[in-house]
Amino acid sequence: MNLAHIIDSHPGDRVAIYSRGRPTTYGALREQVAHVRGGLATAGLGRGDRIALLCSNGRYFVDLYLAALGLGAVVVPLNPASPAPEIERELRTVGATIVVVEPSAAAAWAHVDRARVPSVRTVVATEAGTVSCDLAFDDLLAGEQLPAIEVQANDLAVLIFTSGTAGAPRAAMLSHGNLLANIDQGASTDGIVAADVVYGVLPVFHIFGLNVVLGLSLARGATVVLVQRFDPFTALETIAERKVSVIPGAPPLWLAFSHFADAPADSFAGVRLALTGAAKMPEEATHHLRERYGLDLREGYGLTEASPVVTSSAGIAPKVGSVGKVLAGMEVRVVDERGDDALSGDTGEIWVKGPNVFPGYLDDPEATAKVLTADGWLRTGDIAVTDDDGYLYLVDRAKDLIIVSGFNVYPAEVEEVLLEHPDVAEVGVVGVPHPHHGEAVKAFVVLTPGAAAHEDTLIAWCSDNLARYKCPSKIVFVDELPRNVNGKLLRRSLT
Length: 495
Fold this sequence. Notes:
By secondary structure, this protein is α/β, with parallel strands linked by helices. The chain folds into 3 domains: 149 residues, Rossmann fold (3-Layer(aba) Sandwich); 201 residues, Rossmann fold; 93 residues, ANL, C-terminal domain (GMP Synthetase, Chain A, domain 3, 2-Layer Sandwich). 26% of the residues lie in helices and 25% in strands. The strands form 8 sheets. The chain has a 5-stranded parallel β-sheet, with helices on both faces. Strands 2-1-11-10 form a 4-stranded mixed β-sheet. A 4-stranded antiparallel β-sheet has the order 18-19-21-22. The longest helix has 17 residues.
């Protein structure tokens, strides 16, 4: 077995990817990957070595990812927009021996102190002349073709840094077996199929972009349109031009389409599957997308440590507010504070078990022990309820819980109420210290264009819709909210 084999069986003349407007067929992709694999082997990359990719969505990433996996090496996808200190820290953490740098990361890489990352012995530039390097991508492409080697299911394939919403990011270890298992689990739904054209704007250095948008799509023989930047106008042009049929996107993407006044009502007429995840989708926006475009948004749930998808609404009747049902091939429990299975309708923490669950965090047994039980259950830290039909509904993150005078307040509940106000476009809620109540609720609000709501107005709105202890005592108006590359709100950055 080897994850790199996902491209092997598809017709050679079928388009695998579009990158910068250029199509690459599966046949051409297999040849390119085999050449790059030979080039990497000549550069000294072998089984177990770590190669870091400072690359965004494009053919360079795809070629390098599949080539390195085929050598039994470990791929470390990094955000090319990261600052130099973060890049240094992550490279030291994983012990990368080769780093590939594309032009978008050149400015940050110029400030990386190579002495602080002594494991790095080779730097590859995807485009010659853009960064000081030892090799260019074309040098790798000139390598002798090499086939993929066979590996074991528990052999490490990827080290990917978690979003760090509740603390410092850690490198999650994902094996070939983990990633392939989740691809198989995802294929069990009526999701992506060979005839699909998938809009690939979610970053491939994030787990959903890596193993669903890229991994699952290529495994199914679909076509992926790789997009490096998102804006709603050019996105609609691309969707029409490439006849896109599947759009995976985080809530900010769908909110942008929801607020795009000039978009025609038939903008998504050819889209058969619209997916969202990474954060709770506002229900009002889901209803608005359906009313305006006739688009049924299918919400799902996952996390890096589960490779990533746990639940999906694809292939089943969607319920607004639900993240769907558990994929075949894994087990899920909703566990109450006593460690028992919560009753239907009662809240509890989501626990996941299956071949898709990661073995732990790199060199961090203490953090691993906090999330993995002795018998293999992944404690996600996410709070949810189920209904009688088996649909899962996210309530919030356990670690984001606000406790006011001994009462639990879930930020997502407060956010949902504020988002129902017509003047509110985005909102983030956190707990702040309070001398009498332990914590108080504080909201950061982005207003819709032209709106002029006041703090007292929104607090009164909350008072009309929430118990008193759940209402914000302070609302701060901001131009934007801090989010990670996948659109997830970074609560720790709200102060």
